[in-house]
Amino acid sequence: MKQQSMLEEVKVEEAVGMVLAHDLTQIIPGQFKGRLFKKGHVIREEDIPALLSIGKEHIYTIRLEAGYLHEDEAAFRMAKAAQGSQVELTDPHEGKITLKAAIHGLAKIDKARIDRVNALDQVIMSTIKTNTVVAPGKPLMGTRVIPLIMEEAKIAAVERIAADGDGPIVEVKPFRKLRAGLITTGSEVFKGRIQDKFGPIVREKLAALGSEVIEQRMAPDDSDTIVREIHRFLHEDRADLILVTGGMSVDPDDRTPGAIKQAGARVVSYGTPMLPGSMLLIGYLGDVPVMGLPGCVMHDPYTSFDVLLPRICAGEEITREDIMEMGYSGLYGC
Ligand SMILES: Nc1nc2c(c(=O)[nH]1)N[C@H]1C(S)=C(S)[C@@H](COP(=O)(O)OP(=O)(O)OC[C@H]3O[C@@H](n4cnc5c(N)ncnc54)[C@H](O)[C@@H]3O)O[C@H]1N2
Ligand code: MOO
């Protein structure tokens, strides 16, 4: 097998661009004792005076043979291969680069390709979960190689995997500003027996993603009224999203799922394998999403609505498969 590198004694003036083979310590009596340069450091022109000042006229370096990369360069090539839109890279540090969100948006991370890269051994892509809402600066992925000197062939393999898919491995999708129509059902709210608690919460959740509730309309537990309000939001207000709250379970007065179907929606799923939020309905009227929101959205901080809303705001269409996949790791409470 070809030797990956060799230890070489070189004059410091000739060491620029070479890789330091071990840590170098500086001692200034009474003031400082510690590492001046770390093993693996690539020596720069400006390091020469500092090296000479600690009495080093010669140092051991590792010469990179053709076909081998320093850990920083290897990590950089991996990070570049994974980087999609609205993703920024940090500088390499100890062979690690972090990919960070450039905007507030929805992180999209391709698990299948991440798994293929991590199966290569000695190269690492460590990520957060796909479909996470991220703020600017939020770390999305760390890339690192394990040895100080890395075979280039392995990094080329990472690059081939990264190119073998639809779109990048990591990107952040921006949120669109959706105009949502909100219909609150429940005769107890409609008749003023209790005060509405759904409106403020739904408004807040939409606002947090840059969207808005254009109007909230109250409806009694009456299918025809709910259908009429859905059609008004769809045809008159041209809402981008229609949300119907309450009446989602099994009581005789729970009219919402029936009314959404009666309005002509193609129901993707009534019932979501996540707790809380299992009674949520999602469907489409043309390309306008319509959702039935169960009572728990009012009082539980994280439900199936919080999983699906960011994806809808990022312009994604929710499929039956998306719903199915929410069950695994979807148990939060209830
Ligand atoms: N036998 C079953 N019972 C329940 C089931 C089930 O599968 N089988 N599912 C439970 C789950 S999970 C949830 S979540 C709730 C779903 O509730 P609904 O969406 O049907 O909500 P409502 O019955 O309309 O109301 C529940 C509760 O909340 C009050 N409410 C409703 N809207 C408002 C509002 N806008 N402001 C303030 N308060 C509101 C309402 O008065 C009720 O007290 O069902 C479980 N049960
Ligand atoms: O839908 Mo309940 O929607 O699981 O708390």
UniProtKB/TrEMBL annotation:
Example of a GO cellular component annotation carried by this entry: cytosol
Residue ranges crossing the lipid bilayer per the database entry: none
Cofactor(s) of this protein: Mg(2+)
Taxonomy of the source species: Bacteria, Bacillati, Bacillota, Bacilli, Bacillales
Keyword Transferase carried by entry: yes
PANTHER family (alphabetical): MOLYBDOPTERIN BIOSYNTHESIS PROTEIN (PTHR10192), MOLYBDOPTERIN MOLYBDENUMTRANSFERASE (PTHR10192:SF28)
Pathway given in the UniProt record: Cofactor biosynthesis; molybdopterin biosynthesis
Identification of the protein by name: Molybdopterin molybdenumtransferase
Function: Catalyzes the insertion of molybdate into adenylated molybdopterin with the concomitant release of AMP.
MF GO annotations: metal ion binding; molybdopterin molybdotransferase activity
The EC number(s) this enzyme carries: 2.10.1.1
SMART domains for the chain: MoCF_biosynth
Pfam families associated with the record: MoCF_biosynth
Catalysis performed (reactions): adenylyl-molybdopterin + molybdate = Mo-molybdopterin + AMP + H(+)
Family membership: Belongs to the MoeA family.
Organism: Paenibacillus solanacearum
InterPro entries: MoaB/Mog_dom (IPR001453), MoeA-like (IPR038987)
Signal peptide: none
One Gene Ontology term from the biological process aspect of the record: Mo-molybdopterin cofactor biosynthetic process
Keywords: Magnesium, Metal-binding, Molybdenum, Molybdenum cofactor biosynthesis, Transferase
